[in-house]
Amino acid sequence: MSNPDVIIGIDAGTSVIKAVAFDLAGRQLAVSATPNRYQTRGDGGVTQPLIQTWDDCAAAIRGLRDHVPRLATRTAALSVTAQGDGTWLVGHDNAPVGDAWLWLDARAAPTVSRLAARPLNRARFEATGTGLNTCQQGSQMAHMDRHHPELLDRAEVALHCKDWLYLNLTGIRATDPSEASFTFGNFRNRQYDDTVIDALGLSHRRALLPEIVDGTEATHPLTAEAATATGLRAGTPVSLGFVDMVMTALGAGVHGGAGDVACSTVGSTGVHMRAVPFQNVHLNAEGTGYVICLPVPGIVTQVQTNMAATLNVDWVLSLAADALRDFGHEASHRDLVARVDQWLSATQPGLTGFLPYISEAGERGPFVNAEARAGFFGLSMATRYPDLVRAVSEGLGMAMRDCYAAMGSLPGELRLTGGAARSKGLRGILGSAINARVRTSAREEAGAAGAAMMAAVAIGAYPNMNACIAEWVTPLLSAPESPDPTLVATYDRLFPAFLAARRASPPVWEALARAREAAAHSGDK
Hints:
The protein is of the alpha+beta class. It has two domains: 6-245, Nucleotidyltransferase, domain 5, CATH 3.30.420.40; 256-440 and 484-525, Nucleotidyltransferase, domain 5 (2-Layer Sandwich), CATH 3.30.420. The protein is 40% helix and 19% strand. Strand 16 (261-266) and strand 17 (270-277) form a beta hairpin. Helix 1 crosses helix 7 (161-170), helix 11 packs across helix 16 (446-458) and helix 14 (385-405) crosses helix 18 (485-504).
């Protein structure tokens, strides 16, 4: 019989579930992915069937057998992370109570407004470090309690996506310290907090909150039923990972190394995180962002998220594609992306500004405004299309700086992942915008790697997470790229203009929202 030498990390995203096999030293061996479907409703609801999600997860795990010989006997442990927030209700005999409400679900918006106006909301924020929004389980349960109480009445436990998968893998109803504390608890002690639960109006529903389990310290065995479904051996240790945002950041390098390190995932959306001792958390006056525990004692991440990051670049490139198409020329998105660095190098920085709020859902970091929209400022007759590409790219840097400034002082090193990491020009803009050296990670599946790292520590393959980081993460980081001093000075001058434009825009956004609503109503007649 082979000695177990494989750890499986499961990363269950909103639309894709991945099972990734690693060896004990962190080298990626294989990936198996299964599409995961969700439904949108006319009332703002976004839901996902629980049974379907478990079946898709089991299929992804089984798919690894095609790539890793003797997978069952070689698997030392597995760990699961998944999409955060949302509400996955489970009742008698662990049967689902309807479909899950996903983090995309907007039905709780009026409840968020009501709870945010309550006197206890600041105390809730001081404990959780997390701004109230429609994504969160606490907001959604408060909305259910008022408008759909029968759902909570039928439930025996309220889980998140990864918790539901862990229940199917192990038979244990549990959640992890990260989601427990930023939703219902206190990031300082990683436990539930009575004041927070009361602020959400859910004290009478407290029995629905599951046990909190730290997956670096405890595992539960794979059940016989789950072994049959996944093709693994019953009894294999299973670790409950933290929420996907911090698992991805852990795998990409948010913690470890000297100095003040931050990690940004700049893809379609932007996630900006820094790891700090919990005593050093900076809670902003606006009450926005997240504080999410890392699976490292005493260390948490401060998080601010942009609704749209490289989606802004996709938009400005689509303008060129549309114009070329009108003249009978086709340019693929790939072709246009390949020209971005050339356009950046041919333009002068800091002459035109851009608010990168292209998402129709508005913005959530470091301010919350559903009506926020993108816009240029400082255009002139001399402005040409490449200048717009630069302005949009610099807008991403200004938005990143805005997010990190809301967490305190700017970091000294930025570990960068996502689509922006592939562009030398964009890396230079982002690093100079916050005056930080930039490093990228060669890790392909950072979320699954972060979860697998927790399992590696739990089974004793490493004495602690820092030792695991030293082997799984640090060797995959590139050499640091220093910021351009000239660009740093330029962006120091541009940022106050960006802030002034952003702060002055809400009346404009609100007026435009009213105009859009009026136009929509006139079109209905």
